[in-house]
Protein backbone atom coordinates (compact mmCIF):
# COMPACT_ATOMS: atom_id res chain seq x y z
CA UNK A 1 0.00 0.00 0.00
CA UNK A 2 1.34 3.42 -0.98
CA UNK A 3 2.16 6.11 1.56
CA UNK A 4 0.59 9.41 0.49
CA UNK A 5 0.97 12.96 1.74
CA UNK A 6 -1.91 15.32 0.93
CA UNK A 7 -0.89 18.94 0.43
CA UNK A 8 -3.65 21.53 0.59
CA UNK A 9 -4.61 25.01 1.63
CA UNK A 10 -6.31 24.95 5.03
CA UNK A 11 -9.36 26.48 3.33
CA UNK A 12 -9.83 23.10 1.62
CA UNK A 13 -9.71 20.95 4.76
CA UNK A 14 -13.24 19.62 4.21
CA UNK A 15 -12.02 17.76 1.12
CA UNK A 16 -9.29 16.06 3.16
CA UNK A 17 -12.05 14.67 5.35
CA UNK A 18 -13.85 13.43 2.22
CA UNK A 19 -10.75 11.59 0.98
CA UNK A 20 -9.97 10.10 4.38
CA UNK A 21 -13.59 9.06 4.85
CA UNK A 22 -13.68 7.23 1.52
CA UNK A 23 -10.32 5.62 2.31
CA UNK A 24 -11.83 4.11 5.46
CA UNK A 25 -14.89 2.77 3.62
CA UNK A 26 -14.43 -0.97 3.01
CA UNK A 27 -16.69 -0.77 -0.05
CA UNK A 28 -14.39 1.70 -1.82
CA UNK A 29 -11.12 0.80 -3.46
CA UNK A 30 -9.18 3.87 -2.30
CA UNK A 31 -6.48 2.57 0.01
CA UNK A 32 -3.30 4.24 1.20
CA UNK A 33 -1.32 5.04 4.33
CA UNK A 34 -1.94 8.68 5.11
CA UNK A 35 1.34 10.52 5.78
CA UNK A 36 -0.24 13.97 6.25
CA UNK A 37 -0.08 15.89 9.51
CA UNK A 38 -2.61 14.53 11.98
CA UNK A 39 -2.88 17.76 13.93
CA UNK A 40 -1.61 21.30 13.42
CA UNK A 41 1.80 22.12 14.87
CA UNK A 42 1.69 24.67 17.67
CA UNK A 43 4.22 27.36 18.54
CA UNK A 44 5.70 28.00 21.98
CA UNK A 45 2.63 30.00 22.96
CA UNK A 46 0.16 27.22 22.18
CA UNK A 47 -1.12 28.82 18.96
CA UNK A 48 -1.21 27.18 15.53
CA UNK A 49 1.85 28.24 13.57
CA UNK A 50 0.63 30.32 10.63
CA UNK A 51 3.96 31.77 9.60
CA UNK A 52 5.58 31.19 6.23
CA UNK A 53 7.90 28.20 5.71
CA UNK A 54 10.91 30.54 5.51
CA UNK A 55 10.23 32.04 8.94
CA UNK A 56 12.55 30.69 11.64
CA UNK A 57 9.51 30.24 13.91
CA UNK A 58 8.27 27.58 11.45
CA UNK A 59 11.20 25.22 12.01
CA UNK A 60 9.16 22.71 14.05
CA UNK A 61 6.46 22.58 11.36
CA UNK A 62 9.02 22.28 8.55
CA UNK A 63 10.86 19.48 10.34
CA UNK A 64 7.67 17.51 11.00
CA UNK A 65 6.35 17.91 7.44
CA UNK A 66 9.75 17.12 5.92
CA UNK A 67 9.91 13.86 7.88
CA UNK A 68 6.45 12.91 6.59
CA UNK A 69 7.36 13.84 3.01
CA UNK A 70 10.47 11.64 3.21
CA UNK A 71 8.27 8.73 4.34
CA UNK A 72 5.77 9.27 1.50
CA UNK A 73 5.67 7.53 -1.87
CA UNK A 74 3.25 9.98 -3.48
CA UNK A 75 2.00 13.53 -3.12
CA UNK A 76 -1.56 14.65 -3.79
CA UNK A 77 -1.96 18.41 -4.14
CA UNK A 78 -5.55 19.54 -3.71
CA UNK A 79 -5.96 22.62 -5.87
CA UNK A 80 -8.60 24.95 -4.53
CA UNK A 81 -9.35 28.54 -5.40
CA UNK A 82 -6.42 29.86 -3.34
CA UNK A 83 -3.88 27.02 -3.50
CA UNK A 84 -1.71 28.83 -6.05
CA UNK A 85 -0.84 31.43 -3.40
CA UNK A 86 -0.18 29.06 -0.48
CA UNK A 87 3.47 29.30 0.52
CA UNK A 88 3.20 26.04 2.48
CA UNK A 89 1.78 24.08 -0.47
CA UNK A 90 4.54 25.44 -2.69
CA UNK A 91 7.15 24.51 -0.09
CA UNK A 92 5.74 20.97 0.29
CA UNK A 93 5.78 20.46 -3.49
CA UNK A 94 9.36 21.72 -3.73
CA UNK A 95 10.54 19.46 -0.90
CA UNK A 96 8.75 16.37 -2.24
CA UNK A 97 10.11 17.03 -5.74
CA UNK A 98 13.64 17.43 -4.39
CA UNK A 99 13.39 14.10 -2.54
CA UNK A 100 11.28 11.99 -4.92
CA UNK A 101 10.95 13.86 -8.21
CA UNK A 102 7.71 14.95 -9.89
CA UNK A 103 6.50 11.62 -11.30
CA UNK A 104 4.65 10.79 -8.07
CA UNK A 105 2.76 14.07 -7.79
CA UNK A 106 -0.90 14.41 -8.68
CA UNK A 107 -2.79 17.70 -8.81
CA UNK A 108 -6.54 17.39 -8.19
CA UNK A 109 -8.98 20.29 -8.43
CA UNK A 110 -11.40 20.60 -5.50
CA UNK A 111 -15.10 20.44 -6.46
CA UNK A 112 -15.66 24.12 -5.65
CA UNK A 113 -12.61 25.35 -7.60
CA UNK A 114 -13.83 27.29 -10.61
CA UNK A 115 -10.99 29.76 -11.06
CA UNK A 116 -7.88 28.80 -9.09
CA UNK A 117 -4.84 27.21 -10.62
CA UNK A 118 -1.90 25.21 -9.37
CA UNK A 119 1.21 26.76 -7.85
CA UNK A 120 3.60 28.06 -10.50
CA UNK A 121 6.22 25.36 -9.86
CA UNK A 122 3.86 22.58 -11.05
CA UNK A 123 1.65 24.27 -13.64
CA UNK A 124 3.24 22.04 -16.28
CA UNK A 125 1.68 18.96 -14.60
CA UNK A 126 -1.80 17.76 -15.47
CA UNK A 127 -4.60 19.16 -13.28
CA UNK A 128 -7.21 16.46 -12.72
CA UNK A 129 -10.87 17.01 -11.90
CA UNK A 130 -12.23 15.88 -8.53
CA UNK A 131 -12.69 12.14 -9.00
CA UNK A 132 -12.14 9.76 -6.10
CA UNK A 133 -12.24 6.73 -8.43
CA UNK A 134 -9.37 8.20 -10.45
CA UNK A 135 -7.56 9.00 -7.22
CA UNK A 136 -7.98 5.38 -6.15
CA UNK A 137 -6.45 4.06 -9.37
CA UNK A 138 -3.58 6.56 -9.16
CA UNK A 139 -2.89 5.66 -5.52
CA UNK A 140 -2.45 1.97 -6.42
CA UNK A 141 0.13 2.61 -9.17
UniProtKB/TrEMBL annotation:
Residues 5-113 form the Thoeris protein ThsB TIR-like domain. It comes from the Bacteria. Coiled coil: none annotated. Transmembrane segments: none annotated. InterPro entries: ThsB__TIR-like_domain (IPR015032), Toll_tir_struct_dom_sf (IPR035897). This is TIR domain-containing protein. It comes from Motilimonas cestriensis. The lineage of its organism: Bacteria, Pseudomonadati, Pseudomonadota, Gammaproteobacteria, Alteromonadales.
